[in-house]
Amino acid sequence: MLPVLVCFVALVGLLVAERLDSAPGRAIAKPIAASAFVWAGIAWGGLDTVYGRWLLTGLMLCWLGDALLLPAGQSIWFQLGIAAFLLGHVAYALSFVHLGLDPAASIGFGLALAMAAAFALRWLRPHVPAAFRAAVVAYVIIISAMVVAALSAVAQGAPVAIAIGAVGFALSDLSVARDRFVSPGFANGAWGLPAYFASQLVLAYSIRLVASAQ
Q1: What CA–CA distance (Å, rounded) separates 212 from 79?
Q2: Residue 98 has what pLDDT?
Q3: What is the pTM of this model?
């Protein structure tokens, strides 16, 4: 499908820009790649169902987050980017909740993700400036809740693609955290960017899967 191809080509360009540390290259390639997953969400029926509209809202907020995170460093734009992605995770979680959650799975996955979140925060804490700590804690909590909702929705019968996309998105966030706070470098984006854009496309495709199952 054309949006997937556009996203792939733009992703390749973004990885080249990251390897060359080209700000202009990033400024061109990243918005195109992000626009492609929003385009895919619309093409796969994002405007046609309640689930699709919540999911599409999350995709658009992630697009905004990508744009705000273009400047390097830990500026006000980075804080606004975190806020946009946080709201995007909330929109994703609400879309999954709309499908119905398995109560037992919610408890089990909730405990597992709570431990994972505690580990991540312990890893990040020495590296995060005081001004960012509250935002980072809130972000980790929200994205953990989003993953729990995705896994619980799948346990209730939703398409497995939802869990794949949500978990992939959460893992890609580790690369962003490592790059911004722990150890900047191309290695973070080399795996994090493909994981992120692939996860967004998988979540976008889940709109079609959910609609076809109803």
Answers
A1: 38
A2: 95
A3: 0.93
